[in-house]
Amino acid sequence: MMARYNRWMNEKLYAIAAGLDEQALRCDRGAYFGSILGTLNHVMTGDVLWLKRFAGHEALAQPLALLQEVRAPSRLNDELFDDLPSLWQYRRRLDAALIEMAEIVGGLPPDTVLSYCSMKGMPVRRSLQALAIHLFNHQTHHRGQATTLLKQAGIDPGETDLLMLIPEL
Fold first, then answer.
1. How far apart are CA 18 and CA 111, in angstroms?
2. What does 66-119 look like in DSSP terms, one character per residue?
3. What pLDDT digit, counting tens, does each position of 52-78 carry?
4. Domain containing residue 119: CATH number
5. How many domains does the chain have?
6. CB–CB of 1/105 below 8 Å?
7. 25 neighbors 155 (Cβ within 8 angstroms)
8. Do the Cβ atoms of 101 and 3 come closer than 8 Å?
9. Which family does the record claim for this protein (predicted)?
10. Residue 64 near residue 56 (C-beta atoms within 8 A)
11. Per-residue pLDDT tens digits for 10-31
């Protein structure tokens, strides 16, 4: 469900952002990552950083193979793509891979471990399922910032709650 929510929100935010001119996209609005484009890039940077780690798990290597196309970020404010169309094109592909990855992670035993190195090069071992939750929580947090930046630009992004994807019974 979180992977589908991620895709839904990204499609919504990127479609709105595509209607902005370059100045509005790049305007520093005082947010942690500056602009709307900077914030969307940070979500991508975080995703790429974590998913490259996830791709090290044998069950996830194939669905996350497209990560070989982008460099590993060295900082959390790295811009992996310097324009919205390129960012959105890769975002769509990554979101499809995230849906496939989430299905696999959901089927793994809850005690599945992911071993990786931190950005400081330190070895780490943590629950793969908990790290997947962290990934989706990180996306939600920064997309919330992006919606605030859009509001500052005079655009109401509309409904953004996960509740919109939870079917009524």
1. 41
2. GGGGSPPPSSTT--S-SSHHHHHHHHHHHHHHHHHHHHHHHHS-TT-EEEEE-T
3. 999 999 999 999 999 999 988 988 888
4. 1.20.120.450
5. 1
6. no
7. no
8. yes
9. Belongs to the DinB family.
10. no
11. 999 999 999 999 999 999 999 9
